[in-house]
Amino acid sequence: MITMIVTSGAGSVDLYAQELARELDVPKVYSGSYQRIAKLFNSSWFSKSALMTIWEDWRFVRMLNRLDGMVHLPNQHLGRYGYFPKKPYLITVHDLMRYFDLKGYGTYIHRPNLRDRFYLNLDYKGIIKAARIIAVSEFTKRALMDNLGIPDERISVVYEGVDHKVFSPLPRSRSFEYPYILFVGSEQPRKNLSMLLRAFGKLKEKRQFGDFKLVKVGKAGGREAAFRRQPMGLIDALGLTRDVLFTDYVPKEDLPGYYSGAACSVLPSLYEGFGLPVLEAMACGCPVIISNRTSLPEIAGGAAIEVDPYDLDGLVGALREVLADGELRNEMGRKGLSQASKFSWRKTAV
Q: Which member of 245, 287, 298, 315 lies 3.0 to 4.6 Å from 264 by CB, making a disulfide possible if both were Cys?
């Protein structure tokens, strides 16, 4: 018997747990544990919230120990809890971005402080100790093998899904009065929003694209850093204040309107463990431009235009090509619908 831990919250890893829980007929325990983890990134050891959480963490470990059979931890940051109980568990790993920040390989999200380093090391010890690991992409599996030394036979690749009852083309989309390019995601450095803003600024220099706006959907990316400060400064420097709209969080049920009304969706990320917005956009018939890095080409399956995330002119060229060619957009929409149809939460569950 496997008991699944289902985390509350509206983040992508929470969505994974919640969607999977709807499809699986297994015992479930609902928990706000990951919400606590996410809120405490970059907190001091001696902050009141961090000190109070130590007791809650211990209670969670004790709860895991009392469960019968194996436990499924639905994201890598719950590895810090799985490390302690003397019982088998499986864990889903979505990405290793925090690991790379921890090791100083780059700044994909935020450089960890002393408290974060302690807990992140526990996370990765918990991954290594797991009886079985689910990776959400072949890319993530390779990262686990290369960076944590986990053997191939202990890792299964199970793709995430998309809810086709929600994400489908809308004949009357909730679009804006103006044509727009869509970006769905946070403003963490890994998302490479600054490159898209620069490309959008160059795009606007051509009169035929003068009416276009850039709509950015999603929260800034957590409270651990001022993620919005850099893009807002860049927007001001580029003179795009009236041309970029930040919507912040949009409920899942409303997202298809944004995708369906967009001329294209762009995800120029430097790092993604999976890239759910790619599938969501494709399921709505929206043409997609992606980075040619990490998991994105694997998930897009040739149905998106791929660009080097460091190539400004390449991204500008891709935008011009898609926005100027209605026939190309229709073709990309058809290919995207076909690719998205290969993914569902039912397939993830079985």
A: 287
Residue 150 lies in a domain: yes
pLDDT tens sequence across 299-340: 999 999 999 999 999 999 999 999 999 999 999 999 999 999
pLDDT averaged over the chain?
Answer: 96
The pLDDT of residue 174 is: 53
**What's the rounded Cα separation, in Å, for the pair 151 and 76?**
17
Cβ atoms of 155 and 161 within 8 Å: the answer is no
The predicted structure's pLDDT at residue 310: 98
CA gap 6, 102 in Å, rounded: 26
Q: Which two tokens stand for residue 23?
A: 């499809």
Chain Cα centroid distance, residue 244: 22
Task: Report helix, strand and coil shares of the chain as percent, to nearest 5.
Answer: 45, 15, 40
CA distance 217 to 213: 13
In a domain? residue 168: no
Domain with 137 in it: 2-157
Q: 27 is written with which tokens? A: 């015992």
Count of helix runs (H) and strand runs (E) in the chain: 15, 12
Overall domain count for the chain: 2
Burial of 97 (0-12, 13-18, 19+ CB in 10 A): buried
Is 175 within a domain?
A: no
Name the DSSP letter for residue 253: G
Residues contacting 112, CB < 8 A, separation 6+: 41, 42, 98, 101, 102, 120
Asked if residue 310 is part of any domain, the answer here is yes
Write the pLDDT tens digit of every residue in 115-152.
999 999 999 999 999 999 999 999 999 999 999 999 99
Please compute, for residue 155, the number of CA atoms within 13 A of its CA located in the half-sphere on the CB side.
23
Three-class secondary structure of residue 3 per DSSP: strand
* pLDDT < 50 positions in the chain: none
CA angle (275 as vertex; 83, 317 as ends), nearest 5: 145
